Amino acid sequence: MDTKELLKKVRKIEIKTRRLSDHIFSGEYHTSFKGRGMTFSEVRQYQYGDDVRAIDWNVTARYNEPYVKVFEEERELTMMLMVDISGSESFGTKNQLKSEIVTEIAATLAFSATQNNDKIGLILFSDQIELYIPPKKGKPHVLRIIRELIEFSPKSNKTDISQALQFLSATQKKKAIVFMISDFIADDDYEKTLKIASKKHDITGVRVYDIREEKMINVGLVAMQDAETGQVQWVNTGSATVRMQYEKYYTDKVTYFREIFSKCGSGTVNTRVDESYVTKLLGYFKSR
Asked: Which of 171, 165, 154 is CA-nearest to residue 203?
């Protein structure tokens, strides 16, 4: 991808996701991940989604518009975006690839954190750590993250969620808000590493999937390639047994994801590529 095309894509994503974060997510993000501290720090203008109990009525009356009190523990947080860039993310049947939706979600979350003056870091992973960008503030930093999400080419197409969580625990010593974005169709057992990481960090798993992954349709005998291993084999999709085995495999992976994240006290969001991830994220923020 040449520089001109890359910058055009970055700008397109920035315009869309920054508008979402400015008008929809900033207040919800602030409310969901900012606790009310005990030490008063300052006042600022009210943002959509702020807790009305924090309104400073004296300042509000003076300026004739709502202001809220900000407490010391609300001053700064760190957001870590952990993004799966394995081969299975380059799949899509509804006009967009999973990887494109993943990029939009990550960008929206990053701009929301920027609105709150928080640091944002990035971990791109497959079955290895492909790229690590330490947490930092500012729009230029977010734009760099978006560029990497668009153009980074992984060395491996496989997935290892457990290794990514180990890397998080080893590098991020202070508590962070962590969004792990993946399809979570991985064969590794990540319960132990998630349990360790979730004791320190506020972790949310964002599962992005395509409708055609849920069930195998009957199209007869076809050659299928595993996006992560590159292996090609002929599959008889006309066989009810084959379709049932595939559906069980897929369902087991999704169930494992939901149960393990819940067991470890971590949140989950499930969004299909042809659904509104905005609605799903808003619903999650409001339910926290």
From this structure: 165
Q: What phi and psi values does residue 68 have, to the nearest 5 degrees?
A: -120, 155
Please give the single-letter amino acid code of residue 225: Q
- The pLDDT tens digits for 108-119 are 999 988 888 889
Structure tokens at 17: 């996701």
β-pair type (177-182, 78-84): parallel
Q: How far apart are CA 15 and CA 18, in angstroms?
A: 6
Q: How many CB atoms lie within 10 A of CB 71?
A: 17
Give the model's pLDDT for residue 197.
Answer: 97
Token pair listed for 198:
């979730």
At 24-41, the pLDDT tens digits run 676 677 677 764 445 566
- Give pLDDT, residue 37: 46
Burial 102-122 (b: 16+ CB within 10 A, else e): bbbbbbbbbbbbbbbebbbbb
Tell me if the pTM is above 0.85.
no
Using CB atoms within 10 Å of the CB of residue 201, give its burial: 0 to 12 exposed, 13 to 18 middle, 19+ buried: buried
User: Measuring CA to CA, how many Å separate 99 from each of 95, 96, 112?
Assistant: 12, 8, 20
> Measuring CA to CA, which residue among 245, 103, 256, 234 is closest to residue 181?
103
CB 81 within 8 A of CB 179: yes
- Closest alpha carbon to 48 in 282, 287, 284: 282
What's the whole-number average pLDDT of the chain?
Answer: 85
For residue 288, which amino acid is it?
Answer: R
**170, two tokens:** 């080893």
